[in-house]
Every structure is written in C-alpha cells, then in structure tokens.
Amino acid sequence: MRKRVGSTLLAVAVACGVIAAAPATSPASASPAPPQLEFANPVSQALFGTAYREALDNLLRTNTIGYDAKYDKSGLLDPATGLVRAGGGYAQPWTRDASINSWNATSLLSPALAENTLWAVVDQDAGGALRVQQDDQQWDQVVWTTAAWHHYLVTGDGAFLENAYRTTANTLTIREHATTAGFNATYGLFTGPSFFNDGIAGYPAPPADATESVSTGSSPWPGVASGMYLSTNEVYYSAYVNAANMAEKLRRPAAEVAGYRAKANALKAAVNQYFWNAKTGLYDYQLLADGSRGAYQEGTGLAFALLFGIANPAQARSILAHAQEMPWGMPDTFPNWDRYSDAQPGRHNAIVWPLVQGLWAKALAGQGDQSAFASETARLAKLADGNSGFWEIYNGHTGVVDGGYQRLGDTVKFHWGSEPDQTWSATAFLDMIHTGLFGLTFTDGGLAFAPDLPAGWGDVTLRNLSYRNANLTITLRGAGTKVGSLTIDGRPAPGNTVPATLSGSHTIAITLTGAAVADRDGDHVPDAADRCADTAGTVDGCPAPGHLEAEDAVNTGGVKTNVNHTGYSGRAFLDGLWAQGAASSFTLHRTSSGSATAAITARYANANGDARTMTLSVDGHPLRQVSFPKVSDSWDAWGTVTFAGIPLTGRDPVVTLSYAAGDTGSINLDWLSATPAAR
Questions:
Q1: Rounded Cα–Cα distance for residues 397 and 254 (Å)
Q2: CA 260, 266, 271 angle in degrees (round to 5)?
Q3: Where is 274: in which H helix or E strand?
Q4: How many CB atoms lie within 10 A of CB 78?
Q5: Ranges under pLDDT 70 in the chain
Q6: Which residues contact 313 (CB under 8 A, 6 or more apart)?
Q7: Rounded distance, CA 576 to CA 556, Å?
C-alpha cells in the first residue's frame, strides 16, 4: 500500500487520481553531467542502454525537485541544491526512498543532491539532537544509516560523517526504547512490519485475516506490530555494523565501537536462530510474538541476507539454489496468500517491485551468480523499455504494469494503480549497471572493481563517471567475473583499485574471463554466440522479424502494456498511443546487413469513429504518415494493415510507429511483422 498520507481514504484518493500529487519542480542547481553507457553490441545497447538513459532521466530530471524549506527540519540542507522525491504520485523524499535511492545511485551520480535528500528526512528533537524523522513508518527508518555510510565511502566527506553518526546514534537509541516497532528482548529482535510492506496485502493470515477487516495498512494490525520480520531485522543489523564503522572512523571510544559491534553480532545470531529454515533452505519471512513462524519467501529479506553477510557461505549457496522467482523477477513476498491469486495478486504479495529486483540483482552479482544476475537485469530493462520507463509495480507473470489488489473493507477488493516514474525503480536499474555490471565497490581508500559481464552482452564502456575528484572512462572487454587485467591509463592498477586521491580524467580498461557457459533464454544458442542472449529467437538467437509482439518493443512517451481488452496475442497489448510523443519501436533482426524493401504489417485496434494516423520511421528517420482504418466499435476487436515498400538497411533496422505532429493516433497495438519484398 506504500506511502500512506494521513489516512487510508486519502491514500486511495491519491492512488485513484482524485487528488493530484504535487508535481516536480526544477532544482535550484543542476546535477553533474550524467555518464554514458555504450555497448559494442547494438542489441545490448538497445536493451540496456535505453533503460540506462531512461533511469538517469528519471533520477536527475523527472524526480529531482527544488529546495523546499519545509524539508529542512535538520537545518542541514543547502538551499542552492535540490533533492530527490519518491516518484510519480509521491511528491516527498520519504525516508526509505531517500535512503535506497542514495545507496543505489544518487550518492555516486550527484553527491550534493544525495546529501540534501538524506538530510531532508532528518529532523531534530526538542533539544536539537539530530534523528531520522519520526513518522508513522518508523520501523525501518534505520536503513538511513546504511545509505549514510555508503555516502561517506563514495564521497569521503568527513563533515557529513560527523552529523550522520550523531543522527544514527540518536535514532538507534530511540528505536531501542520504543514501545511501538521497538526491541523484543525475549527474541533479541526488533518488532514491526517488514522493510517496505506498509500494506496488509504483504502479510499472510495470521497476522492478517481473510477479509483484511482491521485496516488496509499493516501497522494497525496487532500481529504485525508485535511481529518480527526478516528484512527489518537485517536492516537493523546493517545499521549497527555501520554505526560501528562510523564510530571507528571518527575515532570514538573503543567501548562505543565495540558496543555497536556486539549488538550487531547478537542480532545476526538471533536472525539465524529464529529465521533460518533448514527444511526450505531459506530464511523465513516472519516470527509472530507467540513464537509461530511463517515459512514464506521475502525478496528483500533474502537479498539483505546475502548483501549484509548475515548468511554464511553454505546458507548463501542454499538461498541461490532454493529461492523462487517469477517469470518477470524476484517477487516481494511469495507465494500467493489464500486471499489472492495469480489473477488478482496482492499489492505486496507474489508481485514484482523493481526495488526488490535491484536488491536481488546486487546480491546475485556479489555471489558471482552471473546467469541469474544477467536474467534479473534483463527483466527490469525489458519492463522499463516496454512501458515507457520505470513504474512502481508489475505483474510477475505477465510483466504488465499492475498495482496489485488489496481489501478495502470487509467485502471490496480494491485494485491499485501502479505509479509511473518511480525513483527507486530507476535507481534499482542504475545500481544493476554500476554495482553489478561494472562491479563498483567503494571503500575508505578508493574504488575497487569486481565486474560481472555476462556472455553475449559484448564489450561495454561507461563514460563520464565522476568519482570524488576524478572523471573516469571504464571499459569492460571479454566476459566473465574474473579480472584478467586492469589498467589505469595503460598502467596496471595494484589491487584492481582506483585510489581515493585520484584526480583528473582517466581511462580504466578491464579484461574479463570465466564467463558462465549458459543459454539464459533457452533458445538453444549459447549465450556467447547469441546476438540476443536474453531474448529467445531463431535469427542468430534473436526474435524473427516475421512476428514481433508490441509489448516487447521499446515503447516511449507513455505507451505501456495492458490486458484490459480481449483478443490480443502474446502476454499483453499496448495502450498509451494517445498523445503526441508516444512511440513504439521494433528492431528487425536480419541475417544480412544489405539494403532491401519490406512490407510492414501491424495488428491493431481502432474503435474510434474514423481512421487514425501515425508516422512510420526507419532508424529514426520519418518515412511517411500511415493510416489505421476503424476496425469496430469495440476495443476487443483487432484488425491488420500492411504498409508496402518500406526500405530497410543494415542488420538490425528499427521501425517505429509514433504519434507525431499532424497525426491523430489513439490506437492500441498488438504486433508487427516484416516480410521481405518479392524479387
């Protein structure tokens, strides 16, 4: 149910569009010029490069807002710098989102923006002591500490660290003594909801009931409030570890450092005692106050167990072997609770949040599970490319934009919307590229590299990446996770590390070996020889141009997947071709790179009163306006239209149908095919 604002009714009103969220405003100061991601393989560039550009735009333009004094309760914001909001429909820099986004990407891409955003969710008590803001979702607010320590490692900012440590120490003390979402001494664990599951749809029964009769939110449920959840306790473990790291760096008394480390060790032991399930080979999701356990899967909980080192090597291998993913990624909680189903998944149950995908992919890369990392990253890239950017939630079986279901009272099951332009969805993908693909690892002494370049993706370069006082161009060649060589400006780099003192512009070249021998897409073409290693097909491993589903195209300008009409093929159809700027682009993978003409056929729906027009382009060049005659008075009826004599050049020409100036648009699109002209 994410981001409740005062009451359930107000939250529902915002989600339904009855009350508009405050729009983003321009930041007072611009962020640094963003990096550029360049794959030598045009297929990889189209898939991952497109998603990367969209993610950068999401973070640094769409969701960067100007300074607002109402967020400066810490007194530490820079009025000349903006901050990052949670995303479309959520105009504020929420604690969880601010922390995750800074950890994922903002601290690296725009340190000043990240710092302002982190301080925007900190306030002061009556005595002026800094603390993470005390709101109605306080159970996981200590994730801020993990983000703050990461920010220090990226920037080396000692002044920031001083204030971050004070904030961390005060917040942990508050949480340890809280009567709500506090510490349960019997189990040695923290109580309260799981990491971001603020809706009761994220919980089995018990502690919920079949009709969700108490509240749509999770906190009002006594069993949730007094229960203990895997991800939340892992976030506390990480907070204690990083509090100790901060104290040690700041040369605080040894007893202070040791105290935090002791609390971290005790919490880690309690998590392993009460949540590890040898029968399932996974960590359980919940432990209720009466001692009953819930052997369910929580995506963030499994990711945190690997990322924070809570799982030992044997447990980590077991998690990788037994964790269950859905066709479109790692779900939030799993499987379906009895009151939900594949047809009506819960908002926080058996459904895919890119936030979770990003954390899981980071964990997979850290474990060296190259094929699984590649698959999760490709899934999110496809979800973004196929839906005009990064949405909040997707259906785990179809990949369709879907906010999931939840009870609204005793008898009504409410279908939520999935909000567009979600910042932590975009930064999840940015982190897949930075932390996963390029293996950026920040330490107090410098920037280390542990890349993970899957077979079939091709060589890749990240340009214009700022790190402290340096501007880096990083190139990965080969494939695998083993670094064969790493040079800085042609000279070997000891320890595969860029020192924190490096300044100026430099080129880092990394050669990789040891790629996994696999066939990720199952099309019987090994990844190393597959032009489209993450999309099954028959043309050198790529989809044949004779039938391309529209939901698999690169869609922009608001075009997205939908299933609210019948008769479509594939997993969905496209709507959103309803305003200028909307476009759907199809790459036609061919066996040769010569020039030829083809007939392009599109299957579409048009229930308007007249024929509608679109612009057909090839490789970005407008060719002509094309017409889509009316099919029926029903949007459930589909027709086809063919456009002859379309010139194609190169091995992978791109055909685009767009709603350009002078067009009337407003059609739904199902598939496109290309047939070579007869000789």
A1: 52
A2: 125
A3: helix 254-274
A4: 16
A5: 1-32, 678-679
A6: none
A7: 9
End-to-end CA gap in the chain: 58
Pick 543-676's CATH classification: 2.130.10.130, 3.40.50.10610, 2.60.120.260, 3.40.50.670.
2.60.120.260
Cα three-residue angle 222-197-341, rounded to 5 degrees: 95
Rounded Cα gap, residues 200 and 210, in angstroms: 11
pLDDT of res. 2? 54
pLDDT of residue 14: 30
Residue found by looking up tokens 């909980």 in the block: 301
Strand 654-658, strand 583-587: pairing = antiparallel
C-alpha dist (Å) from residue 447 to 406, 507, 603, 604, 647 = 44, 14, 50, 50, 48
Amino acid letter, 82 = G
Q: Which two structure tokens, joined as six digits, stand for 355?
A: 């936030």
DSSP label at residue 141:
T
3-state secondary structure 334-377: ECCCCCCCCCCCECCECCECHHHHHHHHHHHHHCCCHHHHHHHH
Please name which of 613, 559, 567 lies closest in space to residue 385, comparing C-alpha atoms.
559
Closest listed residue to residue 393, CA positions, set 422, 359, 353, 345:
353
Alpha helices in 386-432 (DSSP H): 423-431
Number of H helices, E strands in the chain: 16, 35
CA–CA distance, 660 with 584 (Å, rounded to integer): 12
Task: Look at strands 491-492 and 440-442 and give their pairing.
Answer: unpaired
Phi, psi dihedrals of residue 410, rounded to the nearest 5°: -75, -25
Q: Count CA within 13 A, CB hemisphere, residue 295.
A: 8
Tell me what pLDDT residue 407 has.
87
Structure confidence at residue 213 (pLDDT): 92
Name the DSSP letter for residue 501: T
Please, which residues bridge with residue 186 across strands? none
Beta bridge mates, 646: 598
Contacts of 257 (CB under 8 A, 6+ apart): 244, 247, 248
Q: Where are the domains of the chain?
A: 179-297, 543-676
Amino acid at 531: R
Both tokens assigned to 439:
């293996």
* 513 contacts: CB under 8 Å, gap ≥ 6: 478, 479, 480, 482, 484
Angstrom distances, CA of residue 344 to CA of 340, 390, 394, 564:
6, 22, 12, 13
Predicted local confidence at residue 25, as pLDDT? 41
- CB-CB contact of 208 with 202 (8 Å): no
pLDDT computed for residue 317 by the predictor: 98
What H or E segment, with its residue span, contains residue 265? helix 254-274
Instruction: Please check whether residue 121 is in contact with residue 83, taking contact to mean a CB–CB distance below 8 angstroms.
Output: no
Helical H runs in 432-560? none
Three-state secondary-structure class, residue 73: coil
Strand pairing of 189-190 and 612-618?
unpaired
Using the structure block, give the residue that is written with the tokens 């906190």: 219
